[in-house]
Amino acid sequence: DALSGNMDIRKQAEAKIVSITGHDFGGFMLELARELALETRATGVRQLASTLIKNLITNSPVNAGKWGLLDQNLRNEIKNTVLSCLDSNIKEVRKAAASSVAGKLF
Fold first, then answer.
1. Which residues, at least 6 apart from 58, have a Cβ–Cβ distance to it below 8 Å?
2. For position 22, what pLDDT does the model report?
3. pLDDT per residue over 38-51, tens digit each?
4. What is the DSSP secondary-structure string of 4-41?
5. Angle CA 78–79–82, to nearest 5
6. 3-class DSSP assignment, residue 76
7. pTM confidence score
8. How crowded is the C-beta side of 68, counted as CA atoms within 13 Å?
9. DSSP codes of every residue in 58-70
10. What is d(CA 90, CA 40) in angstroms, rounded to the nearest whole number?
11. pLDDT of residue 106
12. What share of the chain is helix, strand, coil (3-state, %, to 5)?
């Protein structure tokens, strides 16, 4: 839905993201990392997952500081999952993962 060209659908998807990160930031970040790592997912979905990871850590005033408050084991699992994507067979996914890594993921 977040990739939809329909602005109403897109706004609804964005509202869902805000809601989810409000009550399960760590779980949502882990699910995004897993989506990014799934080779069977469409490239656009994987790129979106990477963009969300980066933006939720670096550009989201609502979520400011939440990344640093996550349990270290969970943060490491997310980091390692994103890092594994640097070895993807798909160039666009490697670039997307590198963008997340270049953010404040580490």
1. 103, 104
2. 83
3. 999 999 999 999 99
4. -S-HHHHHHHHHHHHHHHHHHHHHHHHHHHHHHH-TTS
5. 85
6. helix
7. 0.85
8. 4
9. HT-GGGTTHHHHS
10. 11
11. 66
12. 75, 0, 25
